[in-house]
Amino acid sequence: MAVLATLALVALSTPAHAADPAEPAAGEISAAYATAACDSRGTTSADSATATWLNGVLSTKMKGHVNAYRISCARMVVEAVRARGLDRRAADIAIATTIVESSIQNVAEEVDHDSLGLFQQRASWGSAGQRLNPTWATNAFLNAMIRKYPNNTWKSAPIGEVCQTVQVSAYPDRYQVEAGDAQKIVDALWSASTHVVALGVNGEIYHTMRRADGSWQSAGNVEGQAGTLPGAVTGVASAVVSGELHVLATANDEIFHVARRVGGSWSAWGRVEGQAGEVGAPTSIAAASIDGELEILAVAGGVLRHTGRNADGSWSGWGNVEGQAGEIGAPVSIGATGVGGTLHVVAAAAGVVRHVTQRADGSWSSWGNVEGQAGEVGNPTSVAVTATGGVLEILASAEGVLRHAGRHTDGSWSSWGNVEGQAGELGTPVSVGAASAGNGVLHVLAVNSAGTPYHATQSPGGSWSGWGNIDRQADYPVTIQKISGS
After folding, report:
1. Are 195 and 68 in contact (CB under 8 A)?
2. Tens digits of residue pLDDT in 259-296
3. CA dihedral defined by 260, 263, 265, 271, rounded to 10 degrees?
4. Which of 123, 227, 372, 482 would be a feasible disulfide site paired with 431, CB 3.0-4.6 Å?
5. Strands 303-309 and 401-407
6. Entry pTM
């Protein structure tokens, strides 16, 4: 496979035996070739912010040439890797390939023979429509990588070597040069770090994160960055959307929203109800990310409602979930996560853990009784949910015990397991959170009745780490009452 990025239009007639032509600047390519959208919904403000930040840290071909469109393309590649539950190194390899092959553009004209798309795949790979679909093209690349590197040997091979083995390029040395910048791009989009948002005993909001290497960032006061909310905060929730951390907070009987941009700066607080309509005094909130959009759940007046912040920053109006999925009683705790294009919601209501989904077309399933599938847990008081490799991971604190169950991709459920029986005792859990960094590892967060926050992990193989005291790493200035992970 020849490399598109090595060709300018003036070089198309260069004989095959001629010396290797000079590679044009990445910015020239977008003017030379027709491209197709990578994300059908277009680019987002987060894409623009990410591009601006990356242009200051990249060091090779793409430095100064990254824009919102290229980030939207990289985002689709990274999301396809995450959706398969593969190690993030697969994303590093895929992005390095697209840097060389297309300068991270979905090239829609056949410039180099019949090659198309981000990976410049020949017609033998698939139809034009398939090769111009970033998700399909990424999965085709990954399939070839896995086939050529059995037993996960691609994880230890040099990135450039893997790219060349899949692409069979005339210029094999160009991939490894881009490996470092590919890793920086994936860093910005993968969210390898686990973000933790905690509510202090006096109503303060703190943010920290556990980095991929296991170290923790010192806790920072969110209101010190984003502005002071009107009154003490009573609840928090969070989700990572297109590389940005979005935080929700309830205060003064209202819901507020703020975003931590790529690079670490914060936006100002915005009033959700000023955008989506009034819901009354919220008692529980949850957040999730689906396809670049922020999904928000809130319980107010004993009713569970749902709204969304679209990729362009606009908001939908509140919808009554129970009006679509059926009544369950007043939820005391809720959690939400996205799996593919589906929103999954769990709720503790009337002494039972329940689960419901909103499909990609906006329709809702009926509520299902999780305990009818996974066994009884007692009276749940705090729940959380995330996904690892397509498996839905549910945490529930009930009767002073923290338990965990999973819903597999085929719809079957595992039985509830006692997390403390695996990770050790932590005292009575009063608030739980869950997160996944995309590498198949489940991150569990819990605050006990003494106000101490803890963290444990479950590996893809099912083994558990011991509990770690987050306060000893992040140094919270107060005791903690609630916690959220993303």
Report:
1. no
2. 998 668 899 999 999 999 999 999 999 999 987 789 99
3. -20
4. 482
5. unpaired
6. 0.70
Helices 68-83/179-190 angle, 10° precision:
80
DSSP code of 154?
Answer: G
- Retrieve residue 460's tokens: 């893809």
For the sheet with 233-241, list strands across it.
233-241, 244-251, 254-260, 270-271
**Strand residues in 310-376 grouped as ranges (E):** 319-320, 331-339, 342-349, 352-358, 368-369
Q: Which residues pair with 37 in a beta bridge?
A: none
Joined tokens for residue 209: 């994160």
CA-derived radius of gyration, the chain: 23
Strand order in the sheet with 205-210: 220-221, 205-210, 194-200, 480-485
User: How many Å apart are CA 83 and CA 98, to the nearest integer?
Assistant: 19
Contact 376, 361 (CB under 8 A): no
- Contact between residue 58 and residue 44 where contact means Cβ atoms under 8 Å apart: no
Edge-first strand listing for the sheet containing 303-309 = 282-290, 293-300, 303-309, 319-320
Question: In which residue ranges of the chain is pLDDT below 70?
Answer: 1-31, 46, 191-192, 212-213, 262-263, 389, 437-440
Cα–Cα distance for residue pair 18/209, rounded to 1 Å: 52
Q: Are 448 and 428 in contact (CB under 8 A)?
A: yes
Reduced to 3 DSSP states, what percent helix, strand and coil does the chain have, rounded to the nearest 5?
30, 35, 40
Closest of 231, 248, 232 to residue 195, by C-alpha: 248
